[in-house]
Specification:
This protein is an alpha/beta fold. It has helices at about 1-20, 45-65, 80-90, 125-145, 145-165, 170-175, 185-210, 220-235; strands spanning about 35-40, 65-70, 100-105, 110-120, 260-269.
Length: about 270
């Protein structure tokens, strides 16, 4: 099972690499980190935003764990997984030595959700748990138009799992019940299709480059970098992204240089 999850992780990063090469013109810009809650889509009630801010501030004060929220009106067609990597890279959520950060991302127009998890939290806030939070806690609220409540509940579950407070975790997440059905292999097949397309595109580009008598390069360079990072990560190397310290922040909040390697989950409502 562990090996299967690693394969899924590598395939996911390859699929993100493909999207980097195919959709560069539509890439959404990562907005500034203004605080723990960054509601650019304007879907969170003021009272809930204050409550989430206070809760996450308490989590950080007591454990050092940093969790942030980002809502976007639209990603301009960009895949939320590739956008999530960019957000993690720019915001640097989490301590640089503990990599204990996590980000909940909402793409309103695309109806997509994503939880990005720092390396240091992957043992507790696992991909499976993130998926359950998204599908069983947030998506049902979103389908009823309760965006603010869904985000608040989702954040509370993220914080509870990350800090080990099992009593505050929703039952459907704690007991591992997945209301979406058993479709775990579907993402793997979709990723394989992307991989086939990726290899075909690289091969065709190389042939065109040879015919023109010059080195062929463009967004594929990014793809190869991402692929190399994925392989080094799987082998225990230093692949991934995010380093340094974010200079942004609001009310004293800023990222601490946390490292992310693609852990987390995505969902659609």
């Amino acid at each position: 099972m562990v090996r299967f999850n690693r394969i899924k992780r590598v395939l996911s990063i390859f699929s993100v690499a493909v999207l980097f090469t195919v959709l560069p013109a539509f890439a959404a810009n990562v907005p500034a980190l203004k605080g723990r809650v960054n509601d650019y889509a304007k879907i969170i009630r003021d009272s809930d935003e204050r409550e989430i801010e206070e809760y996450l501030a308490g989590v950080e004060q007591s454990t050092g764990i940093q969790i942030a929220v980002l809502t976007m009106p639209s990603l301009g067609g960009e895949d939320i997984a590739s956008f999530g990597i960019k957000v993690a890279d720019k915001w640097d959520i989490g301590d640089k030595d503990k990599d204990n950060g996590a980000i909940l991302i909402v793409a309103y127009a695309e109806h997509d959700l994503r939880i990005e998890v720092g390396d240091g939290l992957e043992g507790s806030l696992t991909d499976a748990k993130c998926g359950l939070i998204l599908r069983n806690v947030i998506v049902p609220e979103f389908k009823n138009g309760n965006y603010s409540a869904g985000i608040k509940k989702g954040v509370m579950n993220m914080g509870a799992i990350a800090t080990g407070d099992e009593s505050a975790v929703s039952r459907s997440v704690r007991e591992g019940e997945d209301n979406s059905g058993d479709d775990s292999l579907v993402p793997v097949f979709a990723i394989l299709v992307w991989l086939i397309f990726f290899v075909s595109m690289i091969s065709a580009g190389a042939r065109r480059g040879r015919r023109r008598g010059r080195y062929y390069h463009n967004g594929n360079t990014i793809a190869w970098i991402a692929a190399d990072a994925a392989l080094r990560s799987m082998m225990g190397g230093s692949g991934g992204h995010s380093s340094g310290h974010s200079s942004g922040g609001f009310g004293g909040f800023s990222g601490g240089g946390g490292h992310f390697s693609g852990g987390g989950a995505s969902a659609h409502w």
